[in-house]
């Protein structure tokens, strides 16, 4: 019973994400579900992890235990290690659940055969011994996470300002550079580009949307967003890369790109994005002031379709806290209001990382919509386009069945409520070598392949 509850807590984190439906999968997802779902989510929340992380500050000799909601200072990951752990036996999962409960580890992602596990510095020896005693196979993928964080993002080289903006695709930029770039485009290409502020974040930062359109009446509309999850830095970079390709090259694009009203929202979670730059590189949620010490709502559990179901937590201290109600957060409420104000939607694309997946609804459970074959066919062509563009393999499938069920996601809402035909969540690179901390030199190859996939979806949306 205790184990089952803990397992659900772990699964609620969205961390362990077994691939479903394969007879060859060592741990069947059905088995996991059977363990997980006789229980009430509320009951799990009561005993879910409390909000503490071990951090080490420069100059400190001791590892301090600090509240998650740090009032000042930065979270450091000196000595934290990323391990790829084999989960070929159910006992291995049980072990991970226990270690997570004891706050020795946290989970980043994985599939039915391996889980990416972040081991806290003071727990490295303990976990190593437990794995040895229990014959749990693992590889150390990152020896010192802080080192990778320090090297991930080179300083932006200051150029003279003749281009009128500071954005590059050689580094991950702060919000002002991204917003400055959107404003620059609207000024430079007034017949093609316009910027709208669709709302403000919890802390009052603008949520900006760039519309790219030739203004033809009868154009269909496509939505592309990034940065719902703060730490997934490759996502906003990918969206701005795509914008740049379209805007600077629009005459040579096919009709499906030219005669489309594009709405790009590169950073839907501006507070979280900035926080992941300035305080905690691994921050995921928005910065809503929560109950007690725990802050942040998972914006991708806060959308208003089947809100609050499987894979979403009612505990504000968890990474998948869905908020106090559907669209309780200003960031998601702004998106809802804006999208409802426009007709002719055909597609909704949300970029996330990591894992290399092209996922379509439904996410809320292991079920698919009636037209799933259309979604599957386009996803397959998109994955093929990625390979043709020289990219790696992307797994395609319905979100709930391919990963673990997760309710309140943006793509489910786009499909289920707004009736957009082609709704996808694309999990960009990588497959767990760097995970969320993907070095900036991967921005261009990753964004290039995402562009190839997006063009395939645009073609389908154009004909829909
Ligand atoms: C932890 O990492 C930071 C950033 O690299 C560094 O400045 C600091 O000296 C490190 N602390 C220790 C105790 O190694
Ligand atoms: C799980 O991910 C690892 C890479 O992290 C990969 O080698 C393995 O093939 C994947 N397994 C499945 C079933 O997709
Ligand atoms: Zn995400």
Automatic annotation (TrEMBL):
<dbReference type="InterPro" id="IPR057246">
    <property type="entry name" value="CARBOXYPEPT_ZN_1"/>
</dbReference>
<feature type="domain" description="Peptidase M14">
    <location>
        <begin position="171"/>
        <end position="461"/>
    </location>
</feature>
<comment type="function">
    <text>Involved in the digestion of the blood meal.</text>
</comment>
<keyword id="KW-0862">Zinc</keyword>
<feature type="active site" description="Proton donor/acceptor">
    <location>
        <position position="427"/>
    </location>
</feature>
<keyword id="KW-0479">Metal-binding</keyword>
<comment type="similarity">
    <text>Belongs to the peptidase M14 family.</text>
</comment>
<keyword id="KW-0121">Carboxypeptidase</keyword>
<dbReference type="GO" id="GO:0004181">
    <property type="term" value="F:metallocarboxypeptidase activity"/>
</dbReference>
<dbReference type="Pfam" id="PF00246">
    <property type="entry name" value="Peptidase_M14"/>
</dbReference>
<feature type="signal peptide">
    <location>
        <begin position="1"/>
        <end position="21"/>
    </location>
</feature>
<dbReference type="InterPro" id="IPR000834">
    <property type="entry name" value="Peptidase_M14"/>
</dbReference>
<keyword id="KW-0482">Metalloprotease</keyword>
<keyword id="KW-0645">Protease</keyword>
<keyword id="KW-0378">Hydrolase</keyword>
<dbReference type="GO" id="GO:0005615">
    <property type="term" value="C:extracellular space"/>
</dbReference>
<protein>
    <recommendedName>
        <fullName>Peptidase M14 domain-containing protein</fullName>
    </recommendedName>
</protein>
<dbReference type="InterPro" id="IPR036990">
    <property type="entry name" value="M14A-like_propep"/>
</dbReference>
<keyword id="KW-0732">Signal</keyword>
<dbReference type="GO" id="GO:0006508">
    <property type="term" value="P:proteolysis"/>
</dbReference>
<keyword id="KW-1015">Disulfide bond</keyword>
<dbReference type="InterPro" id="IPR003146">
    <property type="entry name" value="M14A_act_pep"/>
</dbReference>
<keyword id="KW-0964">Secreted</keyword>
<dbReference type="Pfam" id="PF02244">
    <property type="entry name" value="Propep_M14"/>
</dbReference>
<dbReference type="GO" id="GO:0008270">
    <property type="term" value="F:zinc ion binding"/>
</dbReference>
């Amino acid at each position: 019973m205790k184990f089952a509850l803990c397992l659900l807590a772990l699964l609620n984190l969205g961390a362990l994400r077994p691939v479903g439906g394969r007879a060859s999968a060592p741990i069947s997802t059905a088995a996991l579900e059977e363990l997980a779902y006789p229980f009430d989510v509320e009951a799990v929340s009561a005993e879910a992890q409390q909000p503490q992380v071990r951090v080490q500050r420069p100059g400190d000799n001791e590892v301090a235990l600090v509240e998650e909601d740090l009032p000042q200072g930065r979270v450091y990951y000196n000595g934290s290690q990323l391990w790829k752990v084999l989960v070929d036996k159910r006992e291995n999962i049980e072990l991970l659940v226990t270690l997570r409960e004891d706050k020795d580890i946290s989970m980043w992602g994985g599939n039915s055969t391996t889980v990416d596990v972040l081991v806290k510095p003071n727990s490295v020896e303990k976990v190593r011994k437990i794995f040895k005693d229990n014959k749990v196979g693992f590889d150390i993928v990152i020896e010192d996470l802080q080192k990778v964080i320090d090297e991930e993002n080179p300083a932006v080289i200051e150029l003279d300002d003749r281009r009128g903006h500071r954005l590059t695709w050689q580094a991950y930029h702060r919000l002002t550079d991204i917003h400055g770039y959107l404003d620059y485009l609207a000024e430079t290409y007034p017949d093609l580009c316009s910027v709208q502020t669709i709302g403000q974040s919890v802390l009052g930062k603008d949520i900006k949307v760039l519309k790219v359109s030739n203004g033809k009446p009868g154009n269909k509309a496509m939505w592309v967003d990034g940065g719902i999850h703060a730490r997934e830095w490759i996502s906003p970079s990918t969206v701005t890369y795509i914008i740049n390709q379209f805007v600077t090259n629009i005459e040579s694009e096919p009709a499906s790109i030219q005669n489309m009203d594009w709405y790009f929202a590169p950073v839907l979670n501006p507070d979280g994005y900035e926080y992941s730059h300035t305080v905690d590189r691994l921050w995921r949620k928005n910065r809503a002031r929560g109950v007690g010490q725990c802050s942040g709502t998972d914006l991708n559990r806060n959308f208003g379709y089947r809100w609050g179901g499987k894979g979403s937590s009612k505990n504000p201290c968890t990474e998948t806290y869905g908020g106090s109600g559907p669209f309780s957060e200003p960031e998601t409420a702004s998106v809802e209001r804006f999208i409802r104000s426009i007709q002719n939607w055909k597609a909704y694309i949300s970029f996330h990382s990591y894992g290399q997946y092209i996922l379509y609804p439904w996410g809320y459970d292991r079920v698919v919509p009636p037209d799933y074959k259309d979604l599957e066919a386009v996803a397959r062509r998109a994955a093929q386009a990625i390979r043709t563009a020289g990219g790696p393999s992307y797994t395609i499938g319905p979100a709930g069945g391919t990963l673990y069920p997760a309710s309140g996601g943006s793509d489910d809402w786009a499909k289920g409520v707004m009736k957009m035909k082609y709704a996808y969540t694309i999990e960009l690179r990588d497959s767990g070598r760097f995970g969320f901390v993907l070095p900036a030199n991967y921005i261009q190859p990753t964004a290039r392949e995402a562009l190839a996939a997006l063009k395939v979806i645009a073609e389908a949306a154009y004909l829909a």
